[in-house]
Each structure stands twice: as structure tokens, then as C-alpha cells.
């Protein structure tokens, strides 16, 4: 089961347009590992509690890697939509 959706954005050095990748479904375990990796690598990590349009509770994690983390990119941002039910099922 892959209840988490991750959205990735990047801005390449010297370009003005932001690159967006297709949303990807991942497991809760993988999402937690990626968020922890961001914290260990001094990325800006923010977690928000909210609900979707249907009223389903979810957590949104925003991981922002600034310049110097990835070669050829000014920044990379990953946004994780994690249903709260998936977190409590662990």
C-alpha cells in the first residue's frame, strides 16, 4: 500500500523555470526516511496538520533543500501528503 503522495520541484542553476515531476505514490515508511534525511542534511523541514477537500485529516511535510545540496540546482523541494490514518496505523 502506498498512501503517501510526493511532489518534487527543482530550479536548475541559470534557468528561470521550475521543473515539476509527476506526483509519485510512496509508502509511509519511505516518506519518513526521506523526511529524516532532510533533517540530517540541514534542509528546511516543516510539517503541517490539515485536511483535504473531502475532510480527511492529513499531514503535509515540506522539505526544502537550498543551494549546495544538489549539483546544478539552486533548490529542490519535496512536498509529502501523508494521510493521518496512515501514520496512526504504524
Descriptive notes:
This protein has 90 residues and is α+β, with helices and mostly antiparallel strands. The chain has a single domain (4-88), classed as Roll (Chitinase A, domain 3). It has helices at residues 28-40, 84-88, and strands at residues 4-12, 18-20, 24-26, 44-51, 57-65, 73-83. Strands 1, 2, 3, 4, 5 and 6 form a six-stranded antiparallel β-sheet that branches. Strand 4 (44-51) and strand 5 form a beta hairpin. The mean pLDDT is 93.
Short description:
The protein is of the alpha+beta class and 90 residues long. The protein has helices spanning 28-40, 84-88; strands at 4-12, 18-20, 24-26, 44-51, 57-65, 73-83.
SSE diagram, text form:
Elements: E1 4-12, E2 18-20, E3 24-26, H1 28-40, E4 44-51, E5 57-65, E6 73-83, H2 84-88
List descriptors.
single chain, 90 residues, alpha+beta, Chitinase A, domain 3, 2 helices, 6 strands, 20% helix
* Measured distance between first and last alpha carbons: 12 Å
Biggest sheet: strands, sense, closure?
Answer: 6 strands, antiparallel
Count of domains: 1
Mean pLDDT: 93
SSE string, helices as H and strands as E: EEEHEEEH
Shape: globular
**Relative helix content:** 10-25%
Whole-number radius of gyration?
A: 14 Å
Amino acid at each position: 500500500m502506498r498512501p503517501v503522495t510526493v511532489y518534487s520541484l527543482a530550479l536548475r542553476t541559470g534557468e528561470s523555470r521550475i521543473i515539476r515531476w509527476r506526483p509519485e505514490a510512496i509508502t509511509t515508511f519511505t516518506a519518513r526516511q526521506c523526511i529524516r534525511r532532510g533533517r540530517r542534511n540541514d534542509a528546511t523541514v516543516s510539517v503541517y496538520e490539515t485536511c483535504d477537500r473531502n475532510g480527511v485529516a492529513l499531514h503535509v511535510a515540506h522539505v526544502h533543500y537550498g543551494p549546495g545540496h544538489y549539483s546544478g540546482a539552486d533548490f529542490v523541494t519535496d512536498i509529502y501528503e501523508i494521510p493521518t490514518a496512515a501514520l496512526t496505523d504504524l
